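Quick start: read one record
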Amino acid sequence: MWRRLDRDIRAVLSARTGRRVRPLAWGRTEDDQWCVALPDRLVWGHGNDWRELLWHHVGHGGWNAELRQLRWTTVDGRPGTLRLREVGQLPDAFIDRVNATIVARERIDIDGTDDGVVISGRRNLADPDAPLLWRATPMRGTRLSDPEVAARVDHALERVRAEYDISG
């Protein structure tokens, strides 16, 4: 049976974001926090203690059904997890929203590395006017500390950015 997110939680989230919220999915964590997927971010907490994760900050992540756990690593390497007792549609919303941030993604072979890099352009769903965020993620055997490799990666990043980013 379909149900609406608790009115008090909607009010808290609206106050927190400064606008009326449009929850896409929600559930409850094992420690009784609310977990809510909004179009531009994931928020979780209760009372006055809320945390948020903008979707374009998720480097990778997903759902582990056996552990009932949403897990992610941010683009700057910070891990996060939420163990859910009420799941709802959160796993699907998580994947959908992270994917919605990806404008371009291309694996590039880099001489002197095992697996090269993945170059991605991401949009900030909270700010449609923000420029795309470009990133080169090193794969296995790619050491960005090597100046020659770093220069090749920078060149590849600029090439892909010029190809996909019409905003400049």
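The first strand starts at residue 25 and ends at 29.
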